[in-house]
Amino acid sequence: MSERWDVGRTLALSGLFRLLQGAGSACAGPFLTLYLRHLGLSPALVGVAAGAKHLAAALWAAIGFCPKGRGKRRVLVALALLGSAVASLLLSLIPAAGGAAGDGRCNAAALPAPGAASGRVLSTSAVTETKAVSKERVEATADVLTESRKAALTSSAFPESLGQIDTLGEKSRGAGEGDTKTNGSSDGLSGWTPVKAVNWETQNSEMPFSSRPVIHGLEEKASSLGSAAIDPTEESLRASESKERLLFKTTVPALEGAYVSGNLSDHQQDTQDVSFKRRQNIFQTFLMVLGTVVLWELLATFVKQTVNEGLYEYLDFVDATDRYSKLWICSYLGEAAGACSIAAFVDQMSCFLGGRISRLAVHFYGYALLTTLSLFVSVFFPIHVPKKTTNRVNKTAKALTLLWGDGRAILCALTVFLTGAAAAAVHNFLFWQMQDRGSSELYMGLFVAIGLLAEICLHFFKEKLLKALSSSKIVAISLSLLAAQLLCYSFLWTVWSVLLIQLLSAFSSGALWWVVGMSVDDIATPGMERSLCAVLRGLCHSGGASLGSFAGGFVVKHFGLAVLYRACSVCLMLWLFLFLFVQSKLPRQKKINYSRLLADNSSDTSDSDKEDESGW
């Protein structure tokens, strides 16, 4: 095999494949929750979708399998690459709940608030508008009722004026009008009778001024009585009118409920129907997103694990596994380049590509394009399948047994779990906060790139730092800096400050994994190093990210994003104190380096058995 395959060519193809895969994942992965916000999902639903994505990766890391046949591996890798590209395109075609919401620069006001339900906001605005219209109609009715009740007020409060009106009425009857009774029911006041019996059904109809003809007839009769009888009471009538108007307006809330109960209930029914339909649309969108995201993550994780296993097995066969450890730099460079390129490209585009498709869909188009290019590279990728393969589930069980049998390994696994949960809070909702601050996507792409490039730069000082600092000190510094990052994000003042804070991730994330690698070397038995790394990176870190996403979404919905960051910061500091206390109580177990002992034994010139036994 080693004669037919060139190791340099294999590493070059692997580096190119990782470069393309890293660029593709950075095009879509960091901006996924931003796109879910555009679809109208609440923070809780976004947290559930992101948590399901990380949970799928964690489960696949535990029970994932690699096909044994060389042809099967090549075919399945190609199909998985195509499937992940199609899944990303399907995600871009999911309609937004209640219409496209746009993104930050386009119409940020249309986006749902992180802590409020969309249906509730819609219902409140509709009811407010209904109340405003109803109040106008009630005030119009108040004018009519005030005019219609003037007779009652005048007859009870001004008897002298009433007597003058009665006298004038008797004179007019003597002039030839019909006989009527003179005890308050003369012709001069007979026109008031229909007005006293106010019909509330008529007032609640579409013509609230139906009593105006009666009032008009009353005004004509009052003018026929003469100005001498009306003038003395004109000022009193106006005063009583203003008092009654004030009294009526104080009872408007009670009257409003009786008057517009039918119309308001109709509006409430309409808003409830709209709110129910909107919730139904949001739920349907969430289900489509959830299924697509989980399928996408499963396919991408299968490709990553299968290709890495095949490459490592090949390099192990040709005794070149030491060159495998440098390939992660290609992935980081690809992610940095992909995040900055796609962000700068999207910033130059208009809000919508055509129709209702948002410009955020370009992220998924970029992922599909780069994944298709990596498919052509995988065709020339060398694959080696060993004759004896161990079941992955058995290796995972053995790795978990090794972790459970060592106290320091348990502390390391719990630290990785908690840092994964805290990192998920940043990755899921930090871009929301930046968007609310008016950030463009270029800042978001630079945020991703700066963190990756900072880890690459710090890697060149790895040996010096490991000699100067112990593993406990490195863990303490990493957790402290990660807590400081989260605390700074909770008090974010400007967008560009995010880039300065992200520089701390070189130590808070990169240096922490140095300690994890050292712990794996200490507890791993021959052949179990990669299984232990898969359990710590896949099961512990992804499991923590899943739990952090689930909890973070509900915290953001009910308490806000700043509370989430501060809570994560406090939890990390508490775990740091507990970590240092427990580790100080654990017994130190120094690993025996058998290779060094063998070298010392071969150089020893003494032939005595006692010296050999003491050396061992």
Commentary on this structure:
- There is one protein chain.
- The protein is mostly helical and 616 residues long.
- Among the domains are: 120-261, no CATH class; 390-589, MFS general substrate transporter like domains (Growth Hormone, Chain: A, Up-down Bundle), CATH 1.20.1250.20.
- 76% of the residues lie in helices and 1% in strands.
- The protein contains 28 helices and 2 strands.
- The protein has helices at 7-28, 32-38, 43-63, 70-92, 104-107, 118-148, 150-157, 159-174, 187-190, 193-196, 200-203, 212-224, 227-250, 252-259, 261-317, 328-347, 362-379, 392-404, 407-436, 441-459, 462-468, 471-490, 497-502, 505-523, 529-558, 561-585, 594-603, 609-615; strands at residues 352-354, 357-358.
- Strands 1-2 form a two-stranded antiparallel ribbon.
- Helix 6 (118-148) packs antiparallel against helix 13.
Q: In short, what is this structure?
A:
The chain has 616 residues and is mainly alpha-helical. The protein has helices at 7-28, 32-38, 43-63, 70-92, 104-107, 118-148, 150-157, 159-174, 187-190, 193-196, 200-203, 212-224, 227-250, 252-259, 261-317, 328-347, 362-379, 392-404, 407-436, 441-459, 462-468, 471-490, 497-502, 505-523, 529-558, 561-585, 594-603, 609-615; strands at residues 352-354, 357-358.
